[in-house]
């Protein structure tokens, strides 16, 4: 009979979690907006097929860090990133990196659902088209259907694929954006507060979806909701004033965090 003590079981689980393959890694990441420094020497590993939640009070640098992972900060004029960020060991800031290809490998879903002013079908087919992932109508149809299936939206839209994406409800629009992200077969999906514009029912659907997507993708999600972080993630990273103050298994983070600032934050003492 297996008589492992509770701590031994915990250790085994922990080892299992830490053994998940490394997908992305930030080393000594600093980010500046002009003169102002927003992140200080952040070291964070993102593991494969894991949901990593980024939490912390407003302005602590969650979105800033998230955007370093697919170089979305490049689109902000005075923003400068130092340190090293790797995807499968490769430095994504190396001059040889094609940023368009990088963003296909590391996709993003934003806070406000932002479908293109095009049909539902075109919203999903757009990425595969610009990346040359399908050769004919049948292949596009296949990608559109499977992406909408994966985003849990197919049954609701299969009879109205030619209607505008903007005509869907907010929750449906966000799932359409997830389908759009999934359509180019990314390896990592970044989500910045993907549920903050959704009602509780739509939020629950997206959370369920995140849970399912983890089997095939690596997910990093920024959230203000402790409950959401606890529900959807396996790893949690807590930011405070531009510093990564703690990173841990989500269960540990919410029951017995190591850092006082994490404790204060999850107890609602600030932020
Ligand atoms: N485009 C920008 N130009 C200048 N400063 C910026 C810019 N974006 C963010 N900052 C600053 O960088 C710091 C971190 O901001 P960031 O948006 O990453 O925080 P956050 O943790 O995502 O906050 P929130 O929870 O409110 O979304 C803040 O002080 C913010 O004012
Ligand atoms: Mg933010």
Q: What hetero molecules are bound to the protein chains?
A: adenosine-5'-triphosphate, magnesium ion
CATH class: Alpha Beta
Give the termini distance in whole angstroms: 47 Å
Strand neighbour order, sheet with most strands? 6-7-8-3-9-10
CATH topology: Rossmann fold
Q: How many separate structural domains?
A: 1
The CATH architecture term is 3-Layer(aba) Sandwich
Q: Compute the average pLDDT.
A: 92
Low-pLDDT segments: none
Name the shape in a single word.
Answer: globular
CATH superfamily: P-loop containing nucleotide triphosphate hydrolases
Order of helices and strands: HEEEHEEHEHHHHEHEHEEHH
Q: Calculate Rg over CA atoms.
A: 19 Å
Number of strands: 10
Report the major sheet: 6 strands, mixed
- The total of helices stands at 11
The portion of residues forming beta strands comes to 15-25%
In percent, how helical is the residue content? 25-40%
Structural class: alpha/beta
Considering the chains and any ligands shown, give keywords for the structure.
nucleotide-binding; phosphate transmembrane transporter activity; binds magnesium ion; 11 helices; globular; alpha/beta; single chain; binds adenosine-5'-triphosphate; ATP-binding; Phosphate transport system ATP-binding protein; 271 residues
Question: In summary, what is this structure?
Answer:
The protein is α/β, with parallel strands linked by helices and 271 residues long.
């Amino acid at each position: 009979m297996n008589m492992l003590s509770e701590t031994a079981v915990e250790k085994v689980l922990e080892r299992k979690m830490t053994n998940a393959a490394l997908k992305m890694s930030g080393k000594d990441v600093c980010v500046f907006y002009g003169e102002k420094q927003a992140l200080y020497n952040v070291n964070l590993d993102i593991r494969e097929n894991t949901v990593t939640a980024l939490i912390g009070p407003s302005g602590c640098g969650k979105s800033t860090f998230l955007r370093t992972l697919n170089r979305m900060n490049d689109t902000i004029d005075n923003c400068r990133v130092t340190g090293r960020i790797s995807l499968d060991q490769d430095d994504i800031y190396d001059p040889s990196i094609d940023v368009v290809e990088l963003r296909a490998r590391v996709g993003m879903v934003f806070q406000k659902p932002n479908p293109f002013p095009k049909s539902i079908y075109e919203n999903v087919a757009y990425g595969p088209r610009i990346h040359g992932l399908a050769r004919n109508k049948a292949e596009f149809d296949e990608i559109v259907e499977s992406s909408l299936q994966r985003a849990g939206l197919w049954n609701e839209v299969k009879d109205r694929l030619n209607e505008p994406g903007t005509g869907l409800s907010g929750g449906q629009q966000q799932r359409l954006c997830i389908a759009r992200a999934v359509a180019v077969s990314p390896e990592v999906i970044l989500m910045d507060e993907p549920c903050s514009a959704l009602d509780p029912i739509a939020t629950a659907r997206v959370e369920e979806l995140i849970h399912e997507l983890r089997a095939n993708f690596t997910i990093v999600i920024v959230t203000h909701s402790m409950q959401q972080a606890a529900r959807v993630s396996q790893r949690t990273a807590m930011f405070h004033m531009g510093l990564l103050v703690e990173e841990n298994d989500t269960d540990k983070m919410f029951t017995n965090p190591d850092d006082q600032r994490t404790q204060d934050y999850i107890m609602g003492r600030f932020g």
